[in-house]
Automatic annotation (TrEMBL):
Gene Ontology cellular-component terms listed: cytosol; protein-DNA complex
SUPFAM superfamilies reported in the protein's UniProt record: CheY-like
Protein name (database record): Alkaline phosphatase synthesis transcriptional regulatory protein PhoP
Entries under Gene3D superfamilies matching the protein: 3.40.50.2300, 6.10.250.690, Winged helix-like DNA-binding domain superfamily/Winged helix DNA-binding domain
Natural source organism: Planktothrix tepida PCC 9214
4-aspartylphosphate: modified positions: 54
Domain Response regulatory: 5-115
Keyword field: DNA-binding, Phosphoprotein, Transcription, Transcription regulation, Two-component regulatory system
Length: 231
């Protein structure tokens, strides 16, 4: 199997070269860019599986670049940020974030976890999940409300499907990180809260009073099967 292709976008040449050399040693195919313009050029030519993207660039923002890249392909985005609040990047569709300064081994673990979501489908195709007006098709990786497709990022779909395929189960945030992100992350678990908030805005009739994804106080989240019984 060919190694994954990773595009590293950072305006700091020292950071860019450090990440590039390290990931190359991990047997990834790596390309780099130092600004938004060259990043889009390399993106089109290199066709990466994942982009390590700095939030701050000289000619644009990582947020704008994230939106543009994901409008072209379903590429995974790992955001590099010096900000303590990861919500900006995650709300624009980034799959995960690493705060500077970061550890290269942690960066590699995050990348591996994201790329594992490209698993080969099993032979027996799972059935679509239908809860009232909500339909989740795991084969096409599409979500519909009353027949209208709802655009979700790859990670948002994985998180929703994880919850919906086991309705009534209360998931701790740490369990969702292990199940969906595929790593144990004892630090900032609010990344789960951010993505749940984004999903709610897209599928809930009222995101402030969610009916599908319920918050279980002191625990985490649960997909409520009783939603369909009340409709």
């Amino acid at each position: 199997m060919a190694s994954a292709k990773i595009l590293v976008v950072d305006d700091d040449p020292a950071i860019r070269n450090l990440i590039s050399r390290y990931l190359s040693q991990q047997d990834y195919q790596v390309d780099t860019a130092g600004d938004g313009h060259s990043a889009l050029e390399r993106f089109e030519q290199f066709n990466p599986d994942l982009v390590v993207l700095d939030l701050n660039l000289p000619d644009t923002t990582g947020l704008a670049l994230c939106r543009e890249m994901q409008s072209r392909t379903s590429v995974f985005i790992l955001m590099l940020t010096s900000e303590k609040d990861p919500k900006l990047g995650l709300k624009e569709g980034a799959d995960d974030f690493v705060t500077k300064p970061f550890d290269l081994e942690e960066l590699n673990l995050r990348i591996k976890a994201i790329l594992k979501r490209q698993r080969t489908p099993v032979q027996t195709q799972p059935k679509s999940l239908v809860y009232g007006d909500l339909t989740i098709d795991p084969n096409r990786r599409e979500v519909y409300i009353r027949g209208e497709i709802i655009p979700l990022s790859a990670l948002e779909f994985d998180l929703l499907y994880c919850l919906a395929r086991k309705p009534g189960r209360a998931w701790r945030r740490a369990e969702l990180l292990q199940e969906v992100w595929d790593y144990e992350y004892e630090g900032e678990q609010r990344v789960v809260d951010v993505h749940i908030g984004q999903i709610r805005k897209k599928i809930e009739p009222d995101a402030d009073k969610p009916s599908f994804i319920k918050t279980i106080r002191g625990v985490g989240y649960m997909f409520d099967r009783r939603t369909t019984e009340r409709q």
